[in-house]
Design a protein that fits this description.
Layout lengths: L1 H17 L18 E8 L15 E4 L2 E2 L3 E4 L7 E8 L5 H7 L6 H6 L4 E7 L3 E8 L2 H9 L11 H11 L6 E8 L10 H11 L1 E7 L2 H7 L29 H9 L4 H9 L9 H15 L3 E5 L7 E8 L7 E4 L2 E4 L4
Parallel strand pairs: 5-6, 5-8, 8-9
Antiparallel strand pairs: 1-10, 1-12, 2-3, 2-11, 4-10, 6-7, 11-13
């Protein structure tokens, strides 16, 4: 018996000696990762209630009219962490709205990004400024949003801000989400809507919004809301969207505002997001709560397109046999030239 154990041990030693003797290949092996397109999908019934319990086989996804094999993740089954950029308009007319926006900092980590996600903050008026790089620290997020103040400029380069945020998320992994907190339209961007949509489609960014009317928020604001305010809002000579004053009719201002293109509607609808308007402090808190609920209830569909795919591609998602459902999803994806 002892001799058998000795022979067995000797064989094991020989085997261990043989393994290191293998010579590694002199030429390195390069692996190319196959591109995966992620499509967050929101499904509700006619009453607006979220529909749960769907599986991958319930969905049909067309990529330029071609059915793709899809995989499905839900928040409950574990999805990739969230990278969130909060882009806030800080034009001179945004003061009354910023008083309310400053209060939401403590909600972002627990309600939206969770323990595994990260968020960054940028502001935009005539210029774009990064106030906080990506972090999961709720305290830093709260301080960054609390410190926001209106600038001196009247413009709001929304498209430029969205494009820069999407470009900053190029190297981020997982879900990429942008939250716009602003008025509904762009004011003076160098980037146009088409270019902006191409950028967010290429990086797979989903856009949500919490929009306000500068006219309406100024109209209901109290002098005490602004520490530097010594009285009621003064007329804004920059244009009809300024805060109301003695000689300014807010109804006329709103009509002039509505005649402009609704940039937020275009961005959210194209990327599968949603817009949550607000007017009061309670309103912005409810908007963030609804935003977080929406993000965490989406179905995350994924597919791998052919390697030769180039340019812009149209996406269509349906639940066959369920014409009673309302389905919201990103409308396109873009292949970068170097991909």
């Amino acid at each position: 018996m002892a001799s058998m154990k000795f022979r067995t041990l000797a064989c094991l030693i020989c085997c261990l000696r043989i393994v290191p003797a293998q010579v590694p290949s002199s030429s390195p092996t390069f692996r190319s990762e196959k591109r995966v397109v992620q499509v967050p999908v929101s499904v509700t019934d006619k009453s607006g209630h979220r529909v749960e319990g769907l599986s991958a086989r319930d969905f049909r996804l067309l990529d330029d009219g071609v059915p793709r094999e899809i995989s499905l993740d839900t928040f409950d089954t574990g999805v990739a962490p969230i990278s969130l950029v909060i882009a806030v308009q800080t034009s001179g007319i945004s003061g009354p709205a910023l008083v309310k926006i400053r209060r939401i900092g403590g909600m972002i980590q627990p309600v939206v990004i969770g323990s595994r996600g990260e968020a960054a903050v940028l502001t935009f008026d005539d210029e774009i400024a990064w106030r906080l790089e990506f972090t999961s620290d709720s305290g830093q997020l709260e301080r960054a949003l609390t410190s926001l103040h209106p600038g001196k400029f009247s413009q709001a380069h929304m498209f430029d801000a969205v494009a820069e945020a999407a470009d900053r998320m190029k190297s981020r992994k997982g879900r990429k989400i942008l939250l716009l907190i602003s008025e509904t339209r762009d004011r003076g961007s160098k980037t146009n809507l088409k270019q902006t949509l191409q950028t967010v489609a290429r990086e797979g960014v989903e856009i949500f919004a919490a929009h306000y009317s500068a006219t309406a928020t100024a109209w209901i604001s109290k002098p005490a809301d602004e520490p530097n305010s010594s009285g009621p809002p003064q007329p804004n000579t920059a244009g009809p969207d300024g805060p109301p004053g003695i000689d300014f009719n807010p109804i006329v201002g709103e009509l002039a505002h509505l005649r402009q293109a609704n940039s937020i509607q275009a961005l959210t609808q194209a990327t599968g997001g949603e817009d949550f308007p607000f007017l009061t402090e309670r309103g912005i808190e409810n908007s963030i709560a609804r935003f977080g609920e929406e993000v965490h209830s989406q179905y995350i569909l994924s597919f791998s397109p052919p390697e030769e795919s180039k340019g812009t591609h149209k996406i269509e998602v349906t639940v066959p046999g369920r014409g009673d459902l309302r389905i919201r999803f990103r409308k396109s994806w873009e292949s970068a030239p170097n991909r």
